[in-house]
sulfate adenylyltransferase (Rhodamnia argentea), 468 residues
Amino acid sequence: MASMAAAFASTAPAAHGHRHGLRPHPPSLSLRTHFSPPSAGRRGGGSGLRVRSGLIEPDGGRLAQLVVEEPLRRARTRESLTLPRVKLSRIDLEWVHVLSEGWASPLRGFMRESEFLQTLHFNALRLADGAVVNMSVPIVLAVDDADRHMIGESSKVALFDANDNPTAILSNIEIYKHPKEERIARTWGTTAPGLPYVEEAITNAGNWLIGGDLEVLEPIKYEDGLDRFRLSPANLREEFTRRNADAVFAFQLRNPVHNGHALLMTDTRRRLLEMGYKNPILLLHPLGGFTKADDVPLSWRMKQHEKVLEDGVLDPETTVVSIFPSPMHYAGPTEVQWHAKARINAGANFYIVGRDPAGMGHPVEKRDLYDADHGKKVLSMAPGLERLNILPFKVAAYDKTQGKMAFFDPSRPQDFLFISGTKMRTLAKNKESPPDGFMCPGGWKVLVDYYDSLAPADNGKVPEAVPA
């Protein structure tokens, strides 16, 4: 992926991280906020945006980077071998990764009960100085009765990965009840069966939660060929500074990039330039943690994104490609706040929000789980996200008269074709081509190759997806 590596110019600083045998798996969009010309400034109830140099500060004023410094790692690792052990699931490890790099700043470990309750009930945390930062999804670690008994009166535990490698130490611990039903109801707005994250990480999890201060023994690595794309918030801030970015606009996705997405991203940059910014940089930030079974796996998505850059759909000089390590909840307006908040910590001051962000179909009924417009409305009002700018955009669709993706014109609806994700997947599975101009040819071929890899074998069994 040499061409895509050029999109962020250099990989993360060389470090021998902890190796884990786990691989993260795995819209017409709209943008929104208040703003006026750059000179107007922004304060109080007014609507203005001031162009200024420097990246937006992380929540809490500094990144909570929780990886143990190199000189102390051997001693901490030896200590971990003397402590009660808690085994991490794959999703637990992804949260350790998220916490270790500061995506959840100012959070410094798995949530204690006070933080958990604030997150569930307020979607925010109040800091010691009275400031409020957004936090909409619980970042918690579950343990069962046997774990709780084994921990006993210890104030520390060691966290071990699935291969029994020591990964982290959790100190000053607090163990409290895991109210699963309340957590599910408040995070997803439903307790209907079939929610992917719930079935993977909550239903069969322990009845207790353990919070505390986290020290991660080594940087988390997956050894899947994609670690060079996993830039931490600190790495990203260094790269944006190196490129002299005066604005950073983030675009999260968990799907292949089509030309409608590219239209939104390139038009966002054009608008930022018109507002007076000199060098706005795009953070193209695919989600790299847990995703549901029918989503395209991360390795294939990254290969598709590479082709998008190779074909010139996006400009590598103004695009930084990186993987966001968080697992996916599919919790709609609640989760999109987490996605936005994490990008503030990476240096983004603009966020592109799509139609039905972080949404999914209802697991039982034949309808969407969330109102398609609620995500962008919630982002405009969410506590602790006041510093983030969300830009308004029209819907993109395929314009049959121009043979390309364009912004939908309601005065001539007959000229537009909406190609849903379901339709796109069906075409790719059947090795059919979408209309010219919907997706770059190289990117489409990757998608067809992925679904071809899932074709039933001679014995009728569908193989598991192979890495790209």
Notes: The first strand starts at residue 18 and ends at 19. The chain has a mean pLDDT of 88. The first helix runs from residue 2 to 5. DSSP finds 14 helices and 16 strands in the chain.
